[in-house]
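Let us practice reading a record.
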Amino acid sequence: MENVKTILIDADDTVLDFAKAQHGSFFAACNKLGFSCTDEQYEDYDEINKKYWRMLERGEISKSRLIIARFEEFFAKYGIKADAEEMEDAYREFLGVQYHFVDGAEEGLKYLKSKYKIYVITNGIKDTQENRIEKSGFINYVDGVFISEAIGAEKPSKEFFDYVFDHSDAKRETSVVIGDSLTSDIKGGINADVRTIWFNGKRKGNDEKIIPDYVVYDWKGLKELL
């Protein structure tokens, strides 16, 4: 890619392995509240959770409602007698100390840092993301962190990206958005008129019909592109 000076990179499932962190945190929270779940039930929770995050991206629900509603729906489906707010608190406690790099990410970040300015762009919960980004060492490779909860706008809104450009030295014409989510990262980049790289580490199909400028499947491919 030519004329790139700034990387705007998503955190979860692009740099940090959120799926692994979520899995461990979910089961730890269940144990803390005194009930058990199967792997099949966890997969159902994961789908419910993704549904609510897509609703957030469309502006159909607030983040404060999302984090409780996902557990309310899951508990109702399986008749689990537990408090959704207590589950969220326990889940958040464990998630805050779960930080694993996606394969190749740490090495890739060292490479990117040698060539570009790097800003994190994430829709995650502010306190949790700050903790994970700092304690994982991710913070050592970046020039700034932009979290939607602190900004007051979510990816993929143009307002989120306008804030990033207004509060950094990044320029639209010399930036590229990198992320795993078509509906959040790639659509956000398109909305903001910024080039996009879809980090498709899970090799998902593009059912959303949202077209990135480039697609990579791992950090090796990303380094070769940049």
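A brief commentary: The domain at 6-16+101-225 is CATH 3.40.50.1000 (Rossmann fold).
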